[in-house]
Each structure stands twice: as structure tokens, then as C-alpha cells.
Design goal:
The complex is a heterodimer.
Chain A (H helix, E strand, L loop, with lengths): L1 H10 L5 H8 L23 E7 L17 H4 L4 E3 L6 E3 L3 H4 L5 E8 L8 H4 L9 H9 L8 E4 L18 E3 L20 H22 L2 H17 L2 H6 L7 H7 L3 H15 L3 E5 L23 H24 L6 E7 L2 E2 L11 E2 L3 E6 L7 E3 L1 E2 L6 E3 L2 E2 H11 L25
Parallel strand pairs in A: 1-7, 1-8, 4-12, 4-15, 5-6, 5-7
Antiparallel strand pairs in A: 2-3, 4-11, 8-11, 9-10, 13-14
Chain B lengths: L1 H24 L13 E7 L8 E7 L5 E6 L6 E8 L5 E8 L5 E6 L4 E3 L10 E6 L5 E6 L9 E6 L4 E2 L11 E6 L5 E6 L9 E6 L4 E3 L10 E6 L5 E6 L15 E6 L4 E3 L10 E6 L5 E7 L7 E7 L8 E3 L10 E8 L4
Antiparallel strand pairs in B: 1-2, 1-24, 2-3, 4-5, 5-6, 6-7, 8-9, 9-10, 10-11, 12-13, 13-14, 14-15, 16-17, 17-18, 18-19, 20-21, 21-22, 22-23
Classes of the chains: A alpha/beta, B mainly beta.
Chain lengths: ~425, ~350
């Protein structure tokens, strides 16, 4: 098919090879040859997932596991506030989240040994995995309607996605939903190609494909063409473009989510789940080419250390996540949508000489909500310094297994998942 | 007639001179119906390089027109942030940092467009948040260097002698941060969380002449109060608070909002039309307290964090936001400072 596209491009009206590959790349809509059948909604729908990767590794002290009783060298400049759940405190830097505690659970004792700025172990459960949880779940569940089943918002994560499942299970990628017009790189035809012109080209492709099928009488190719036709229908679907159009949302709600990449990604994730996508990954935006700017990696050598939690990172997370949870719940979506927020690791208990904190995989805090996750609870307690789990340690493998479980997938028994997951136990407190 | 005209002109010049002088000194008496005057704004922007922000300068007419007036030249892999203008608009003090190295302070002569040597006692430590007095004699900053406390400490530097001023009782065993000097260098506002704090973070006011803290009744709440900014005479304090809606007082929204405290009345003043649905941060006042520049993220903005300018005492109408044409970009604008443009 690509070979046909290339020949066609060289002889025709100016389309470049890259553009044709882009069009061909719409196969990466999670639709595959034999698994593309849409799964219409059933009475008991399989849970969806919004998986937020907090690039850089957020400090547990300045988020979900503050230590206000400790000395300043451990506590840091910030204290704790009560949430609306009695007995649960979080960092003072998350006042809006403190009022949504009845919607989520905190796990304070996720633990592992991987001190690397790679999302691999978090999104796949394996140190060098390349097939993310959402891709695996897409493989099992398929699409649900017209919308692409698997979407990634934020910076791309090269080498992570469909992985061993192939490019067909890569997510549709939207780099920055906060832009005035959400541009879908896989969807946008070249500027010089107008609608009618594009339609003529696609008809030509179909005619040539049909001619070739007749010549080859190959049923596999026939199915593949059907797959492409389906992809084309998505390309031109008004429903899809509507789902990606954030300008259809009230300005006040967009402001509540936060007028930044993360906030608008949370909003877009809600819209996509609502419209029929199943799995949305959000990568907290650490722009390529930047130092640690806009990521959670606050060693302190990058200005201005922990103060960036106060002025930039926590306010944006506070707005985006609190509004997402409230919005999902009020629309009746939270019970069927698993929300996860996690970074690569936690951060050192003791503030370093630059006023920041360094990597600390031994103990990190994460957030989980929806899809049956108990609400308003804390799982596990770290020790007095927030250094190690004092009770209920949750190895990373157990966290991954539990995520699959909340998605209705048994990572220990389902042979379809075996190639992609390690061995872990379901965390009983989260089911 | 000529004599009368001459008297009139001399009178008007005298009034203009007194107004300019009082503005520089930081007299924050009401300036109702005062005509707008040219402003100088500094800030850091990530617009040209997402990893390394630069300090820019902007001249504004006080009404709604303005344009870029230059910038501090960038350094290779260097971040320049937390710029603060001296009250007379001549100097800009800021933070710079090379990748992997401790943040340090620097000064820039805006008119001469060149760096000014800054004498700070050497220390292998981070130095941040510079805040100068109007006369350019004093510079407050925060540092992790060992002072008379632990954690973040506050220091006041004599820029002429390069020595640190004695500040008995200023620093604590907690983190003392975000300093702001009054125009005459006599008062220092800052944020800290101490055992005697009313809330999570409180704003404190220290009198450098007496070496004592001054009371701020009615300012701090059980929430977080941070980022204080003093008017030139120290009578007004703009600050950020996470206080929730309070029907008895000036309400907040529970995220970050900006408020203004008047020490003369010991009351938090209204700022109608300033706070929005997002978080408002980093307030900066002109010496007379009329204009307030701040940072906010709004869908109606240019993208990411943007600067906004608020006129508390316009010549006509109610306090309102004033346009800043061609200042904001699609990336983050942070750390504003505002004063009256020199030359008046």
C-alpha cells in the first residue's frame, strides 16, 4: 500500500511523499486488520482510562504526602492542609484538590528502584517496556465508536506506545491542546490539498486498490482496504473533529481547567472519553530542548527550586486535576473511567543545598480515581521522614497489575497480556 | 497676561515636579483623577527560548499603549528571572543561573544598556529574589547561605559598601523567603511559616531601623499569604493568598488570588475586576501603589502565563485592567516589576 502511494505521488499533483505517508499513517488510529471492529456500548461498559504521567517525578512532600511536623530541612517551605475527608492532609500547595478528596485515593507507598527519567517503567510496568498499558488495553478492547480508541496528549514519548503490538496501536498524538485550534497531525491534509481535491485522490486510491484486489484476489488485502476506508471515514468525520474542538467548551470551564497545556489536556481527555475514546495518556509537558523547565524534576539547580512547585507546577496541577475529577464525576463518567497520576519516582526527604530535592524511587505518592477505586482513602503510610514505606508498600509491579485489574483485565491470567506485563499482585485496598 | 501665563506655567511645572518626586518617593496618598504617566515594566519571558528565559523591558503610557524597550542580552544556556526595577527605573536587579550552577544576582543599567558590578559577599550558595530600594542603596535578597537562621534566610546588602546589614531577629529557623524592600529601604516584607504564624504561610513586616517586626492586623489568615510587594512608602502591601470565600471579609476563590492591604486602615482592600477564574500571582506595585502588574493564566490570554496591568485609580471610571499590547506571547511571561519610566 505504501509502495502504491509512493508511485502515485510521483506522478500526481504535487503531494509529497511525506504527506502520503501521513495519510497512510492514519492506520495508527488503533484500528488494525483483524481487531478494528467497533464495540458498541453495552449495558456494562469496560472502563476507560486517563493516565497522567507527571514527567520529572513530583515531590511527595509538596503534593500528597507532606510532613509538616518535621524540621524545615525535611518539611521544606510548605506545610499541609486538611482535605474534605477527615484525617487526610495534603500539601498546602493543592487547595483545590483538598476539596475533591472524596473523589480520589492516594497511594503513598509506591516503591521501586529505577532512578531514570524514563516513562517506560511507569507506562508499561517493565524497565525497558515499549508497549504501554493503554496500548495493551486497546488491543484487547478495540475501538468504541468512531473516535480513535487511544490518544496521547502532550509531548511525544518516542519508543513508547504500540511497541511490540505495532504501529497500529500507537496513539493518535496531539502535542498541545491549549493552542487555539487543536491540530491533529495525522488528520490535517497538506494546505494545498482542498477538500474536493482530497476526495478525488482518495477515490483514486480506492479505485486502484479495487483493481489490484481483483487482480490479486487476496482477501487479506481486501480487509486491509476496509481498514483504510474506516480510517478515512475517521479522517473526515465531523464527530471526531467536534470531539477535538475545545472551543466548543464554555470559556469559564476552560479557565477552571487552566489555560495551559496540562489543563486543556485534561479537558480534552474528558471530551474524548465522553465521545467514545477509551484510553487517553497525558504527558505533563516538559518541552523538548528545555532544561527542567515545566517538569517536576526540581533538583534546585534550575531556578528557582522548590519555589517552582509553588508558583507554577502545583497551581497548574491543582486546577487541571481537580476540575477533571469533578467534571468527570458530575457527568457520570468517573465511575467508568480510571484516572491515574504518577511520575517516575518520588524525591529525596532532605532538601538539598540548592533548595530542591533529588530523585527518590524508594517511596512515591500517586493518585488514583474512578472505575471502582475507593474514594477518599489513603493507601499506605510512609515513615516519619517520608523516605520509605512504613506500612503497605506497593511495588510498582503491583500498581501496574492493579491498574489492569481496574480496567477489567487480569494481568496474571489473561494470556493476551502475558507478553507485556511483569508479575505483580492486585492491591486489595484499591479494588 | 504674560506674567499671569508665566505664573501658571511655573505652577503647573511645580505640581508636575512634586507629583513625580512624590511618586518616586512612594507617597501612596490617593491620586484620584491624576493623569496617567509612562510606566516601565520588566519581566522574564520564555518566548524566544523555552528553556532559558530572558528579561525584557516595556514602556507603557499608563492608558493602553506600549512597546518593547529592549532586553538583557541572553547568556549561553543561562536563565534570567526574578527581575526587579529600582523605583527610579534606572536599574534592574535579577537572578541568573547557568545550568547546574547556583543561582546568583546581577544588576543591569537600563539606559546604559550594560551590566553593573554588584558587590555581594561571596558564598557557595543560591541567591534569589532581589528587591532594591528606590535610591539604589540597598538590596534585599534570599539565600541559603548560613545566616542567623537555617534554611532560606533574608539578607540586606549595602550596594555601596558591599556589606550585609545587621538584621537582628529577622531570620528564623524556618524558611524566610520572598523579600520586598520599601522604597526608602526602611521596611522589609517577606513570607514565612513559623510557629507563631496565623496560617500556612504568613506575611511579615520588619523595620530595619528598629530591628523589630511590625504588626499587620487583619492581613494574615489561616490560609497561605505569600509574595508580598510593598508600595514605595510601605503603606500598601500587595500579596497573594489562597483564602477561600469569606463573606465577612474580602473573599477569595480558594486558589491563588491577589489582595491589597492598607497598613493605615489595617484593612484588605477590594480589587474589583482583578482576580479571575485562574490563579493570580506575582503582584508588583508602582511606587505610589496606583498600578499593579501581575501574572495570570486565562483562556482569553496570549497563551500560558501572561502579564496583566491594573489601574487602581484611573482618571475616570472604575479600577480596571489596562491593555498591554505586544507584551505577552504564546509562552510564559513571569516575574513582573513596574515603576514610572525615568525622565519625568
Amino acid at each position: 500500500m505504501i509502495e502504491l502511494g509512493e508511485r502515485w505521488v510521483r506522478n500526481c499533483e504535487g503531494l509529497t511523499r511525506r504527506n502520503m505517508l501521513t495519510l497512510g499513517g492514519i492506520g495508527a488510529l488503533g484500528l488494525t486488520l483483524d481487531r478494528a471492529a467497533a464495540s458498541p456500548g453495552t449495558a456494562k461498559q469496560h472502563p476507560n482510562c486517563i493516565f497522567v504521567f507527571l514527567h520529572g517525578g513530583p515531590s511527595q512532600f509538596e503534593t500528597f504526602d507532606p510532613k509538616p511536623e518535621q524540621t524545615a530541612d525535611i518539611r521544606g517551605p510548605y506545610g499541609a492542609i486538611e482535605t474534605n475527608i477527615s484525617g487526610i492532609r495534603i500539601s498546602e500547595l493543592l487547595p483545590l484538590m483538598s476539596r475533591q478528596a472524596h473523589r480520589y485515593a492516594i497511594v503513598r507507598t509506591v516503591t521501586h528502584r529505577l532512578d531514570v527519567h524514563s516513562p517506560k517503567h511507569i507506562l508499561t510496568g517493565l524497565p525497558n517496556g515499549d508497549t504501554t498499558i493503554c496500548a495493551v488495553a486497546t488491543m484487547v478492547r478495540g475501538a468504541r465508536g468512531t473516535l480513535p480508541p487511544f490518544v496521547r496528549l502532550g509531548n511525544q514519548m518516542p519508543g513508547l506506545g504500540g511497541g511490540r503490538l505495532g504501529a497500529a496501536f500507537d496513539p493518535v498524538h496531539v502535542p498541545d491542546p491549549s493552542q487555539p485550534k487543536v491540530v491533529l497531525p495525522d488528520f490535517e491534509p497538506p494546505k494545498q490539498v482542498t477538500g474536493p481535491r482530497q476526495s478525488r485522490r482518495l477515490r483514486l486510491i480506492e479505485e486502484m486498490n479495487g483493481f489490484r484486489r481483483a487482480a490479486d484476489s487476496d482477501p487479506i488485502l481486501a480487509e486491509r482496504d476496509a481498514s483504510y476506508q474506516k480510517a478515512v471515514s475517521i479522517l473526515t468525520s465531523e464527530e471526531v473533529h467536534r470531539a477535538f474542538d475545545l472551543q466548543r467548551e464554555p470559556t469559564a470551564l476552560r479557565d477552571a481547567y487552566g489555560a495551559n497545556k496540562f489543563g486543556q489536556s485534561c479537558l480534552l481527555a474528558r471530551r474524548l472519553i465522553e465521545a467514545g475514546s477509551r484510553f487517553v495518556e497525558i504527558k505533563w509537558f516538559g518541552d523538548a530542548g528545555a532544561t527542567a523547565y515545566d517538569a517536576w524534576d526540581l533538583h534546585g539547580a534550575e531556578l528557582p527550586g522548590l519555589q517552582r512547585m509553588e508558583t507554577q507546577l502545583c497551581p497548574r496541577f491543582d486546577h487541571g486535576m481537580s476540575t477533571l475529577l469533578r467534571d468527570l464525576d458530575e457527568r457520570g463518567l468517573l465511575d467508568n473511567t480510571l484516572v491515574v497520576a504518577i511520575g517516575e519516582f518520588g524525591r529525596t526527604p532532605r532538601v538539598n543545598k540548592w533548595g530542591g530535592r533529588d530523585h527518590w524511587p524508594a517511596c512515591q505518592s500517586i493518585l488514583m480515581a474512578g472505575a471502582g477505586v475507593p474514594r477518599g482513602v489513603v493507601i499506605g503510610e510512609s515513615d516519619l521522614q517520608g523516605a520509605y514505606p512504613a506500612s503497605r508498600p506497593v511495588p510498582l509491579a503491583d500498581f501496574i497489575t492493579t491498574v489492569y485489574h481496574r480496567l477489567g483485565l487480569n494481568a496474571n491470567l489473561d494470556d493476551r497480556l502475558r507478553p507485556f506485563v511483569g508479575s505483580g499482585q492486585i492491591v486489595p485496598d484499591l479494588v | 497676561m504674560r506674567e499671569v501665563a508665566g505664573v501658571l506655567v511655573r505652577s503647573l511645572r511645580w505640581v508636575a515636579g512634586m507629583t513625580a518626586a512624590s511618586a518616586i518617593a512612594g507617597y501612596s496618598a490617593p491620586l484620584k483623577a491624576a493623569p496617567p504617566r509612562a510606566l516601565l515594566i520588566s519581566w522574564s519571558s520564555y518566548k524566544e527560548n523555552v528553556g532559558y528565559p530572558r528579561v525584557y523591558f516595556y514602556r507603557h503610557d499608563g492608558l493602553g499603549q506600549g512597546k518593547l524597550q529592549g532586553s538583557i542580552p541572553p547568556g549561553q544556556e543561562r536563565s534570567d528571572v526574578q527581575a526587579r526595577l529600582s523605583g527610579d527605573g534606572r536599574l534592574c536587579f535579577y537572578n541568573y543561573e547557568f545550568v547546574g550552577k547556583a543561582a546568583k544576582l546581577a544588576a543591569w543599567d537600563i539606559a546604559a544598556n550594560q551590566e553593573v558590578s554588584l558587590r555581594i559577599p561571596a558564598a557557595d550558595s543560591v541567591e534569589m529574589t532581589p528587591s532594591p530600594s528606590n535610591d539604589g542603596k540597598w538590596l534585599a535578597f534570599s539565600s541559603l547561605r548560613r545566616g542567623n537562621g537555617v534554611g532560606w534566610n533574608l539578607f540586606v546588602l549595602n550596594l555601596e559598601t558591599g556589606t550585609l546589614r545587621e538584621t537582628p531577629g529577622l531570620n528564623s529557623d524556618e524558611d524566610d523567603r520572598m523579600p520586598c524592600l520599601s522604597g526608602d529601604g526602611s521596611l522589609l516584607a517577606y513570607a514565612a511559616s513559623r510557629p507563631d504564624s496565623v496560617g500556612l504561610q504568613d506575611i511579615y513586616l520588619y523595620d530595619l531601623r528598629s530591628g523589630k517586626h511590625l504588626p499587620l492586623p487583619g492581613l494574615n489568615t489561616t490560609s497561605r499569604e505569600t509574595e508580598p510587594y510593598l508600595s514605595g512608602d510601605g503603606k500598601l502591601i500587595a500579596f497573594v493568598s489562597s483564602r477561600p470565600a469569606d463573606p465577612k471579609g474580602v473573599p477569595g476563590t480558594g486558589d491563588l488570588n491577589i489582595f491589597l492591604y492598607d497598613r493605615r486602615s489595617a484593612r484588605v482592600e477590594q480589587l474589583p475586576g482583578l482576580n479571575g477564574p485562574g490563579s493570580e500571582q506575582s503582584p508588583a506595585l508602582t511606587p505610589d501603589g496606583r498600578y499593579l502588574c501581575f501574572v495570570s493564566e486565562r483562556i482569553s490570554g496570549a497563551g500560558g502565563r501572561d502579564l496583566y496591568l491594573y489601574d487602581r485609580e484611573p482618571q475616570s471610571g472604575s479600577p480596571r485592567l489596562v491593555p498591554l499590547p505586544d507584551l505577552n506571547s504564546f509562552r510564559d511571561e513571569v516575574d513582573p516589576s513596574v515603576t514610572y519610566a525615568p525622565g519625568l
